Fold these 2 entries.
Entry 1:
Amino acid sequence: MKPIYQKILLLILSIICFSSDGLPVYANRAPDSFVIYEVKTGDTLTKIANVYHQSVAAIKTTNGLSGERIVPGQSLILSGNEYILAAGDSIWKIAERHGISQEEIIRVNNVQNPLNTWTGTKIVVPQPQKTSIMTGAYMVPKNKLSDLWLLRQYSPLVTQIGIFEYHPDHNGTLSPLYATTAIKESWKQHSEPVAVVTNLTQKGFDPELAHRLLKTPKLRRKLIQNIDILLRTQGYKGVNIDFEQLYPQDREFFNQFMNELAQKLKRNHFTLSIAVPAKQGDQTPSYLAGYDYAALGKVVDYFFLMTYDWHWLGGPAGPIAPIRQVRATLNYAVTRVPKQKLFLGIPMYAYDWTLSPNGKTSGKSYAQSQAIELAMDHGSPIQYDKESESPYFYYTDASGGKHVVWFEDARSIVKKYRLITKYNIKGMGGWKLGLSFPQAESIASRMFQIVKP
């Protein structure tokens, strides 16, 4: 037996063990175990590191921190399976933060009275075994050096790379895109490059462009032919269709287009995936009726749920991916699409809204790590909305403008990751590579075994 297989076998045997009472024991000492700590007033990285017997450098690396600044309410990933109760903590809070049941913590720790706990008590946080999933991420090619760095940095975490984007004109001719470096490096890094075809124009996603192409058989055939040529000549594994803001009346036209495209690509052994907006019913919401989950789910290989942007820039401020809506979307999707085709969309960005007295909002987006840095710059405590399972904070800019920032962190992302396992779906994907979110990357590598081609 090869040494690598011996190591894998030993790891499996070490995890699949049983306690004296016959109940499975969690892999508590596995190197992938972690707990989530919530920074309290008066905390410093040095203090936290000393309590948990870890180095400041290790905590900084795991959480993507550039310095030693932290703010109250900030979440930190700490390696190991033991959480040490601090003032104000409880077993219920620890369970809720990690997305597990209080009963599970009580059982694993043999707690006699969960109300009778005290500061300094060590609580073992159960660590479920890793599950295998596929992952996808969108990438916007820039230049050779940037593309090489990006793909080499993230390739261990990504099964498929959606190279963004090609868009057809009114005659079905696809726009050019220099992606040679990205395509070749994706294959080299054992990730599958996928061409992303959209209905983007200079004014954004254009439903009128999609309407013209979808309803006209001649244009539909031309677009399909051009997609097939693109995949064959550029070395792609397949295509991801990202047609957004479709008219409800184009539902059957879109179904027909996807069916015809699937037949064409299948003959040439290409994969077909689709990105769809989040729905909670066939006509819920009604303006998304153009997307027929059931029909589309039959013809595609992978079905990417864009379970984010419930609040968007230009609209009212709020959580980007509230857990209740994410869960409702999955509840509906699994009744229409085979689970092993479904990918859960993960937002890799924060939204920063400028608040005005008249109620109008405007804003910008940036990486999650930048949101944390901004909170530190302004000394803004991070708050956490339990209903949406989303963090946020307020700050005032140099001009006196009031802002609110909603983002994702270790607490919110672990809840979404657990849905992948709970619903037994194919995997997850995010927009986009290059938006730094070290906590999401760290937890993903600890919770999942990423499938690579």
Entry 2:
Amino acid sequence: MILASTIQKLVQHLVSTNIHLGHKRSQQHPKMIPYIYKQKDNFQIIDLGQTYWYLRKSAFFLYKSSREDKSILFVGTKKHIAPHIKKIAAECNSFSITKRWLGGLLTNWETIKKNTFTLREENNFFSKKKKSQKIRQKKRIFNYFEGIQTMFKLPDVVIIIGQRKEMNAVRECQKLKISTLTILDTDCNPDLTDFFVPANDDSIKSVLYILDKFSKAIKKGQQFLEKQKLEKQKLEKQKLEKQKFEPRKFEPRKYKVKLELIDSIDALKGPYQDNNR
């Protein structure tokens, strides 16, 4: 009875977020059929059992990735969801692209990295004219790269919200073999991602519910990693202290005489002879 009531509460909570609402049948991707529960009023209803199972699987993947110190990039440029993505990414010490995906952002990373360096660059050492140019350049770059200005290397994992809108990001990740995790609506293709959650990717409530689970998993992994680092530092400190106060053991030096070099008694006595005699 307790288990049944818990499942019922979970289902009610998931339904309240509109996580189960898909697109019209005419927009359905054929490869999403296994994740659709039924059709209602010409709209697809996503199977909540599968949504919950894949959500847990994806959250564990993110936990494992963050405890291995892997960098994570959130990508979502839908105007009504972008501010929430930006906030959640910042809360879990991750990166984000929420304005517009510029072509070559990952595949042409060395050039993009120079632009992110411009954002961090100090203007104090430039002339007035050069300084004003740098400020204008920063403002232009900031719009696109605000969420990645401290990203010094390619991300290890990319979380995509809105696959159809972010196809450029999907293709670049595939080309570079970067792991992707996607919220898949009924009009998306599950073959274009490594991990996914079948769910409504248009509803703010739905996306926030999923991203909250992702954020918690990432934070949990980061806490585990931090704990490991502290324990390692503690052990190293104890080892150094032990070496500091432990008395050193001195052993007499052992000299090995090669008998084959001694040709005669004179050769043995030679270094000790008194020249005054």
